[in-house]
Specification:
Length: 232
């Protein structure tokens, strides 16, 4: 954050530099998601962000550095959104249904172009590349989070349930872009409902305290649980 202590002319509070960085990141998010990362060059990013080349390289050592920052920004937003939901007084199955419902909203939204993380991984296949590693870190965290939620329902099958949920999510995100987004969303929700019914029953068997007729918790709205940048 040391470079944030300067403005573009070298003095002041850093407000102008911070705004320039945010414009660059916002422009990158919009263009990378809509058109692909490799098709968008630094010259265009600079022009559409209304900054200078010097300002660009003050904040990002290279385009790849900006791409990694873009992926981290989407990751951080999702972590904060799911974190706020898990901290609230919402039943575990309601959290999982809510995440699914929010993914469906995204899949059906205008301009949807698939999952930003999967798209970036396809463009940066080298597992040692910083962008690829940023994608993997997000997916590891997401899997751990979903598995942890299922562990509150069924201890012995949580790993399986978490992996199954993530695979349903990946399939729906891809099918929603390449095929019918309505059908993809419906299939995702049915899959999540089936997972919850199966693993809730197993959880009840584990505790030996069945609750006949237990109604599922409603899907809690989770605005912005998206694997694409805001306004992408």
């Amino acid at each position: 954050m040391g470079d944030m202590a300067q403005t573009e002319v070298g003095t002041g509070t850093g407000r102008r530099v911070s705004e320039a960085r945010e414009r660059l990141l916002g422009t990158a998010a919009r263009l990378f998601y809509a058109e692909g990362i490799h098709t968008v060059g630094v010259d265009r990013l600079v022009a559409e962000s209304k900054v200078t080349n010097a300002t660009f390289y003050r904040h990002f050592r290279s385009k790849d550095d900006l791409v990694a920052a873009y992926i981290r920004s989407v990751d951080q937003a999702i972590r904060a959104q799911i974190g706020s939901l898990t901290a609230a007084d919402v039943p575990t199955d309601g959290i999982l249904r809510g995440i699914g419902a929010s993914l469906v909203e995204q899949i059906r939204s205008p301009g949807y172009r698939g999952c930003a993380f999967l798209n970036a991984a396809a463009e940066f296949p080298d597992p040692d590349h910083p962008v690829h590693r940023a994608v993997v870190r997000h997916r590891d965290w997401f899997l751990r989070t979903i598995t942890g939620l299922f562990a509150e329902i069924t201890a012995s099958q949580a790993d399986h349930a978490g992996r199954h949920f993530v695979m349903l999510r990946d399939g729906a995100m891809s099918a929603g872009y390449l095929g019918d987004p309505v059908l993809a969303g419906e299939t995702l929700l049915r899959g999540i409902d089936g997972l919850l019914r199966i693993h809730t029953a197993r959880g009840l068997d584990e505790t030996a305290a069945p609750t006949p007729g237990r109604a599922p918790s409603p899907a809690t709205p989770v605005s912005g649980i998206e694997c694409s940048p805001p306004g992408g």
